[in-house]
Amino acid sequence: MKKRNQSIRGLYGITPDLTDTAVLLNQTEQILTGGAQLIQYRNKLANKVLRRHQANLLLRLCRTYATPMIVNDHLDLATEIDADGIHVGQSDVDITAARTMLGRDKIIGATCYNRLDLAIQAESKGADYVAFGAFYPTSTKQNTVFAPLDILVQAKKTLTVPIIGIGGINLTNARTLIENGANAVAVSYALYRAKDIHKTAETISRFFG
Fold first, then answer.
1. Which of 24, 65, 84, 188 could cross-link with 18 by S-S, CB 3.0 to 4.6 Å?
2. 3-class DSSP state of 164
3. Would the annotation count 121 as a binding residue?
């Protein structure tokens, strides 16, 4: 049977705080056709009704492209729409509790900031991937903790799950993270605000060979 985390490699698109659902879907489709391997639905401005509406439509779009769609934070939403998984931070739902709710076939990712100990703990609890960052200045998330490139090297030697780089990643710096051990790079602003979204997604995807 194919393992859940085998598909966690390449470009990982993270949606911005868009209230215009049509624009969100159009831009995400360009990212999908550009080669994104995962999409995370993250919208900190949307209310519960809009989140459910957008997440449902985004999941349907991702299924069309056979690409996993992960929900950020909201376990209840991920369960309700049968999303492909959830991404949690340290202040969100516990990984063990999320696994109980979602079942063994769903993807669970965990933010580990700049701490290898959190990543080791997340892996031991059953996380399918861990994310480190921010590696570069980012406008997507406030009060970020910065991570050194060396943590990717350390994590590669210590962990067996895929490692994601996040935070301020763009066409200029993505390759550096990959060369230092990132299995995937999570990108939001540089994708959704790009002049040519499809081409940007395609270019970053090609960095993975």
1. 24
2. strand
3. no
> What number does CATH give the domain 4-196?
3.20.20.70
Side-chain-side CA neighbours of residue 190 (13 Å): 23
Distance CA 54, CA 23 (A): 11
Q: Is 44 annotated as a binding residue?
A: yes
94 is in an annotated binding site: no
Query: Do 129 and 109 contact (CB within 8 A), yes or no?
Result: yes
pTM: 0.95
Q: Is 73 annotated as a binding residue?
A: yes
Q: How far is CA 73 from CA 47, 87, 89, in A?
A: 14, 6, 7
Ligand-binding annotation for 43, yes or no, is yes
DSSP H/E element including 186: strand 184-187
79-85: long-range pairs with CB below 8 Å, 24+ = 80/52, 81/52, 81/55, 81/56, 83/41, 83/55, 83/59, 84/59, 85/4, 85/109, 85/128
168 labelled ligand-binding: yes
What's the pLDDT tens digit per position in 52-75?
A: 999 999 999 999 999 999 999 999
